[in-house]
Amino acid sequence: MTDTATPSVLFVCVHNAGRSQMAAGFLRASAGDRIEVRSAGSMPADQINPIAVEAMHEVGVDITAEQPKVLTTEAVQASDVVITMGCGDACPFFPGKRYEDWKLDDPASQGIDAVRAIRDDIRARIEALVAEML
Q1: What burial letters (b/e) apply to 31-42, b meaning 16+ CB within 10 Å?
Q2: Which residues form the Phosphotyrosine protein phosphatase I domain (predicted)?
């Protein structure tokens, strides 16, 4: 990360339908254009988890326009920070990148109450990440 370039973060989970989309939504909402945000999945789903969309809508963050995307080597190379959420060894590793693994429950097949708890955990982690990066 340099002072002149916009820092970038890539969120990766298996399906890119819940955790990584919620994290990306929170980071876009709190950092605006000060941090470039990407998200991807090692095995992307067909659509974003509707319960995750509902949980985010409750806190004023709209992720309805997002679509699950496949994880590419280029996305990892272009990011300063790579945050994984359960994708394990599927995430490519490049020296010099900052990697974090956030242990978060998968919201797939869970009810709104469980997804709210995951959402709130992600929001707290994003707030700490923004404070650290900016």
Answers
A1: beeebbbbbbbb
A2: 7-132
Determine the Cα–Cα distance for residues 19 and 133; give it in Å rounded to an integer: 20
Q: What's the rounded Cα separation, in Å, for the pair 134 and 11? A: 18
Q: Of how many residues is the chain composed?
A: 134
* Dihedral over alpha carbons 102, 97, 22, 64 (to 10 degrees): -160
Which residues are annotated as catalytic?
13, 87, 91
Q: Per the confidence metrics, is the pTM higher than 0.70? A: yes
Confidence of residue 2 (pLDDT cuts 50, 70, 90): very low
Find out whether 3 and 32 touch, Cβ atoms under 8 Å. Answer: no
Q: Answer whether 56's CB lies under 8 Å from 22's CB.
A: yes
Cα separation, 45 vs 49, whole angstroms: 9
